[in-house]
Amino acid sequence: MRLKKWTYILFAIFMVVSVDACAQKGKASKQVKQREKMLEKQKEEKEKAQEKSIEEGKKRHMNIQTKATKKRMKKTAKKAAKARGEKKGFFLFRIFKKD
Hints:
Helix content: over 70%
Structural class: mainly alpha
Distance between the termini: 81 Å
Number of domains: 1
């Protein structure tokens, strides 16, 4: 009889402790999710700023070139694109393509 009482008491204590531990776990996960969301947003902002700075650098690089150099760069870029296989496609397809 005594053994059954101790078993019930230990079982009750175990249930109380496990419920309490689960309740704290939910709160922590909410904070963790919020922190992850904030970090993801910061990461996206950094990537966007980096892309913007790269584009500004490209524009500045083109602006400081002379007219003849710009023309030569454009010609070289077209030649490289053609060598890579970037073809425009048939003109009717380009005119009537869906964007």
